[in-house]
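Researcher: Batch entry, complex prediction.
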Amino acid sequence: MKPPLLRDVQVWTVGAITGAEADADEEAVARFVTPGPRLTAAERFDIYRSGYHARLVECLLDDYPVLAAMLDRQHEGQFSALCRAYVDRHPSASPNLNGFGRHMASFCREAKLEGFPGFLALGHFASDLAALEWALVEVLHAETAPPLDIAALQALPPEAWAGARFIRSDALRLFRFEYPVNAVFIANRIEEIVPDFPAPSRNAVAVYRKDMQLWRMDLTPAMVGVLEPLVAGKSLGEALETVEAECADPDVLAQTGANLMVWFREWVDAGFFTRIVLS
Amino acid sequence: MNRFSLPNLGIGLGLRTVHYAHILEHAPAVDWFEILSENYMQTKGRPLHFLDRVAERYPIAMHGVSLSIGGTDPLDRAYLAELKALRDRTKALWVSDHLCWTGVAGKNTHDLLPLPYTEESLRNIVSRVKQVQDILGAPLALENPSTYIEYAGNTMKEWDFLAALASEADCALLLDVNNVYVSAYNHGWDAKDYFAAIPFDRVVQLHVSGHTNHGTHIIDTHIGPVIDPVWELLGEAYRATGASILLEWDAEIPSFEETHADALRAKEFITPKEPT
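Model: Structure tokens for the complex:
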């Protein structure tokens, strides 16, 4: 008998591995696969079916260890359920798994997990935490460029500051979060405890890489007010105008004026910028 | 010596992130390292920084899991370009991947799926290996996989398929003796039949590793020390090929010293046996 076409075998195999259980029932499997010395054809094939989800869930666990700990703290198995839903919604199309988990933050806001109705109430918290953890992955893989030398900052004449554009490092991400997820991250990864789910509390965090180490920096509202327009490509003068236009809090404005030079030294030391462009 | 004149590098280890700090700090006396190609692709950051430090000190070979050389989707040209760039960067002595496919119609399972061993499948993979070798400008070494199923439509045995592929595509082979052991157990083969068909002059590298035996079947987990029957196969393969040896340990990875000590057990098995 003529063997089935290679393409047909491959399409069936992937469909039966990644699809619904019905696609891999015993009769269907027996048409394509032989039994082994100790296992039926379906039992043999199930090694690939179970391995598919297990492998991708493990990949997501590597990227989201704190999210996993928090979700499983509420209900054991909740993180795996989230990942299995994610795998079905965002199957991998790439030969490389480095970017596989990139949709998790947005997925957390939309996911409805069968058997875990409580997840809906956690969606925004989970999304913030996933965004923080994914930023660490992105920053790890970001291009390595020499950081701006503090001497270049010190050499900048006062009249040049307003027109200066500070070119951001690829290994920097800024976030405004609804939940204090950096505190949750610290508790879990540094203090090795799984804290209670926090109440909403607006905050900002920078995620960056310095000397090949990954770091997170809490930012005050005044700091993030200046940094956001800067990393978006605005000059320092334009960034300060944005802060003045958008900020109604006189304390924030006062902090900005008083601390700007100190912040810049800290940001340059952390490698937030790679060079200065003068206009 | 193999027909590609690729050197015997000695006994090497798979480079794993948990060992980076030890390797860079202590520069241990390891003959060579094998890298997992995809760990250093789609990245411009820290993984490459560490790889560059290691590649300055040690010979490197590249081992991939995503070429999908037996697939029926078009070859991924972007992946191949990146693979070649990585080879140029590390000056890897050879590039290997698996006799397998990983997905179809754009969906990737990230598993090393067994091929149907048919004439059509052979024609497909021979053509693709030739294209890949052309792009890389070097022989590609293909590894025999651990498999858990065989297709009902198979018209030849895996070892005959592999031998025909190597000859027709003029490619190199990476003989994984643990995979021979695992697949032989899972399918009721005899490892002797496998070895009898292998063109040993095309084998440029040998893999050895631990596995997990579930009684009804064995999974190629790369966990734990290598068992003696697998070491015995390694000894036999080494005496036939004189190829570079590499220990893979991919989960529950112990300290560098313990991993390296297990790799060096190869010496007990590769020396010619004294007549009794």
